[in-house]
Amino acid sequence: MSGRTFNVAIAGATGAVGEVMIELLEERNFPVKNLRLLASERSKGRRLKFRGEEIPVEVLTKDSFSGIDIALFSAGASRSREFAPAAVDAGAVVVDNSSAFRMDPDVPLVVPEINADAIGNHKGIIANPNCTTIITIMPLKPLHDYGRVKRVVASSYQAVSGAGAKAMEELRKQVEDFVAGRDLKIEVFPKQIAFNLIPRIDTVQDNFYTREEMKMVNETRKIMGDDSIRITCTTVRVPVFRAHAISVNVETEKKISREKAMELIDAFPGCTVMDDPANDVYPDPLFASGKDDCYVGRIREDESIENGINYWVVGDQLRKGAALNAIQIAEVLIEKYL
Question: Is there a contact between 314 and 334 (Cβ–Cβ < 8 Å)?
């Protein structure tokens, strides 16, 4: 990077992803000149630490972006739709973590390790993909480059933090109440999440897939630049606090052996292979929590089809699945395009 510094705003700074964005800006020594923290009225007056200073949280308005170069949004789709255009009008480039603009043909949808060049096509807004999509396709890209992926079948095991702070508190309280023999309160999720699995994330669509499942289908094709890839998935909420896991079955045109798949994935930036299952070497959510890479194990050839490979991938959805990916986009942006 050139030594220049940039005025950065975070919209949704007090949320789980926003707070990780602040941590990562400091950890990665992002060239921040001034940092503006924005949130809803209820967070007004809070102060958050950045580089040893306490920065006051301001209320997010359409006038919040004067002088801002880069605006990182993690405030939900409705707020992105309301406020991101105002940030662009003020001269900022928006990196948006919500679903608001992902499938807009004029908005790049980017995982920097996969399609960083798309950043150069932005018209003021760059979209961050869904967290499950990012974690799933990181190991998929090297397999696609080598053997061309024809079909993907994925099943996700998604942590409650993907549904926000209240969801994490509901799991904690339900476990506490279960152990104490008290009645469990169900408020955030449609059913009890403690000691349970909920095979429905987001609203059910006309085709009986959920919105979360269709995000994976549509976003994967857009990021990979290949609409011919056939994708089906089932997304499941599990009683885990942090880090998503996905079981992925891939059919390719060219045969990929287990050994070759391990080699390809481990060489791909942002992926680490952990694969010695007989000795319990494989990734799990506890291991991946707080880390930046996507960890891949249980790699094996699918014996039911001619050219098939299975893998299990785990990643921290607050970091690579959200905040880290957004900041990596911003890093490419300032290195090549600002």
Answer: no
